[in-house]
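Table S2 (continued). Query chain:
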Amino acid sequence: MTCLSVNMFINWTKASDWFWARVSASSRIDERGLGALRIFSGLFLLTWLSPTVSWLGDAPPAFFDPPLLSLAFFAPGFPSAALDSLLTGITIVLTCMMTLGVYARVSTFALVLLGIAQRNFKYSFGTIDHDIMLWIFLGCMAFSGWGRTLAVRRDRPSRFESPAHAGAIAATALAFGFFSAGFDKALVWVDFDLTTSGFLSWFYPGYFVLARQHLLAPLVFSFPAWMLESIDYGAVAFELSGFVWLLLGPTCWRAWLFTAGVFHLSNVLMLNIPFDLHLLAFLAFADLSRVQATLTRWLVPVPARIAAAVLFGALVIEAGVSHWSPVWVVAAGPDLERSTTLGLYASVVFWIVGLTVLGRSVLVSMRRTTPQPRRAPEYARGVTQA
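Corresponding output:
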């Protein structure tokens, strides 16, 4: 029995080593674009995602029902409005520090801890949103070394930093997240019954109850039954296959991420459900070296630096004044319909740009992994021509 246990442990160790070696090779992050990724992520948080919970101070105390395994379980109730405002201000400051590259490692990790702590109270209503990948992404990037380029105060090299480990953990979490979503769908959606549709179970409540009737949503009524059934099976197959493509290699993994971008763009167009925060996690594996090189050239002239500082200051002021509301909400004002429409159209633009970057990354990865033909030596070229 002891020998059997030892053999099982050895085999498990070998399998684990093989798995993480394959994942690390497929999900390796290009360090030449980490600075650009950090700046884009910070600006995205400041202007678009705005992960604030400042509204919790106005929530009725009777709604406070935190899970047992939660930090909020030890609190008497929701934070006060004053405490929420203070935490929101601290979050904005940490986001600014991360964006500018001021102690980016520490500020990013502190932002993650504060964001998770605030989510403990946000999830005390009995529901959990889909923003966990944002905090996993930021937590991994905090130790990727993204504070060493395009930074006001560059991070010093640390033994805790490892782009390979950061990419492997982020990729595994992303593949597992999709797998968990696809597994639940597979139990219900794959029924080989043309009279039922899992896709429509999402579409009808959104269209008639939540008024998600924008973009291409009205076209769904013209879809034949076989197409709706194909959407169900295709969505399940895609979400369950993340680990397979991750283990196949870097090109396959980036091709799957491109497909994931198309999947999310389709959700925006037909279901009016934007998952913009996932774009950041996808771009962690994209080739952003050209973007970073361009930013480096642009920020060399002093006038360009002054203009960037003024623009960044305006964004920070806007975030503080609006209690960190997204830009489209501020632009639309009290008009909820206009706010929703602006947000959806902007989400479409984001995903198209993201798909362009991801598509180029697939091509770059293909060129890197495709063996190049050997050139004939100089002394043999003349003989061959003769």
